[in-house]
């Protein structure tokens, strides 16, 4: 039965792979590395983590997942289909009409409807994907920050972890609010971007706790704490960016 299921899924996986790699990963890598001054630290923490896991980061622009994801999931995503992460965009903003809805599904997007809580269909599908061995890119704050400050974590990300036992790879980035400020639709170039990925987190001690909103919030708080720790580390180290013509990637 498992073999038959893989055969049935193969055509859709080929479409997803082609659209994501050719239409998003390569163009966004070139955009971030050639047209912006981007430095990535700790990418190995993603590359060496075995799926399933959640990749979580702060959220400052509508395209944070597109700006950050290709830089940290490549090159492994080129040959490991599970490394093409699922995303959870807001349905109203991205699933508009038949074509864009199809495109969003083709690039591994699961629609989330704001205000429908943690038991909506998109959350249930996300849990199924994690249990099937996939990866998710999630914004634990649930929405973009208007000030750049890291907000409180939502219980949804905590439920994903508690229901699946998946690891969590935290990330903090700066500069993307300059690449695509809130209210703008066209990304800017020549901006300095820093991306710092931390070690994978495990939540085994939380698996013994009740599967309840209180536990979910505790998990979400721990995730937000990890992102803030990366922010503080980045600020303390005062990472020096490479010059525009001498960009580097510290893995």
Keywords, separated by commas or semicolons:
Glycerol-3-phosphate (1)-acyltransferase, 7-stranded mixed beta sheet, 9 helices, 7 strands, disordered N terminus
Write up what this structure looks like.
By secondary structure, the protein is of the alpha/beta class. It has helices at 2-34, 44-47, 64-73, 91-94, 97-106, 121-131, 155-164, 176-179, 213-237; strands at 37-41, 53-57, 86-87, 135-138, 167-174, 192-197, 249-250. The chain has one domain (2-250): Glycerol-3-phosphate (1)-acyltransferase (3-Layer(aba) Sandwich), CATH 3.40.1130. The protein has a 7-stranded mixed sheet, with helices on both faces. Helix 6 runs parallel beside helix 7 (155-164) and helix 7 (155-164) packs across helix 9.
Shape, principal axes of CA atoms: globular
If classified by CATH, what would the architecture be? 3-Layer(aba) Sandwich
State the total count of DSSP E strands: 7
**What is the gyration radius calculated from CA atoms?**
18 Å
Ends distance: 40 Å
Low-confidence segments: 1-8, 243-248
* The CATH class: Alpha Beta
Q: How many discrete structural domains? A: 1
Mean pLDDT: 89
Strand count, sense and closure of the main sheet? 7 strands, mixed
Separate helix tally: 9
Question: Helix/strand/pairing class, anyone?
Answer: alpha/beta
Helical content band: 40-55%
CATH fold group: Glycerol-3-phosphate (1)-acyltransferase
* Major beta sheet, strand line-up: 3-4-2-5-6-1-7
Q: What is the string of helix and strand elements?
A: HEHEHEHHHEHEHEHE
**Which percent range describes the beta-strand content?**
5-15%
């Amino acid at each position: 039965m498992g073999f038959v299921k893989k055969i049935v899924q193969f055509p859709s996986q080929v479409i997803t792979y082609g659209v994501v790699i050719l239409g998003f990963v390569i163009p966004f890598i070139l955009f971030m590395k050639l047209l912006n001054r981007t430095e990535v630290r700790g990418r190995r923490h993603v590359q060496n983590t075995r799926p399933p896991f959640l990749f979580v980061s702060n959220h400052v622009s509508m395209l944070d997942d597109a700006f950050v994801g290709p830089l940290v999931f490549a090159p492994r995503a080129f040959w490991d289909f599970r490394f093409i992460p699922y995303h959870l965009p807001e349905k109203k903003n991205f699933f508009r009409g038949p074509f864009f809805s199809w495109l969003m599904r083709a690039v591994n997007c699961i629609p989330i409807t704001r205000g429908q809580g943690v038991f909506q269909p998109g959350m249930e599908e996300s849990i199924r994907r994690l249990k099937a061995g996939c990866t998710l890119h999630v914004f634990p704050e649930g929405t973009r920050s208007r000030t750049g400050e890291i907000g409180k974590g939502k219980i949804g990300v905590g439920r994903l972890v508690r229901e699946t036992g998946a690891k969590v790879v935290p990330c903090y980035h700066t500069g993307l609010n300059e690449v695509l400020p809130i209210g703008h639709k066209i990304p800017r170039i020549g901006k300095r971007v820093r991306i710092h990925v931390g070690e994978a987190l495990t939540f085994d001690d939380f698996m013994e706790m009740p599967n309840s909103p209180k536990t979910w919030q505790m998990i979400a708080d721990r995730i937000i704490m990890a992102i803030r720790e990366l922010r503080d580390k980045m600020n303390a180290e005062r990472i020096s960016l490479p010059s525009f013509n001498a960009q580097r990637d510290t893995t």
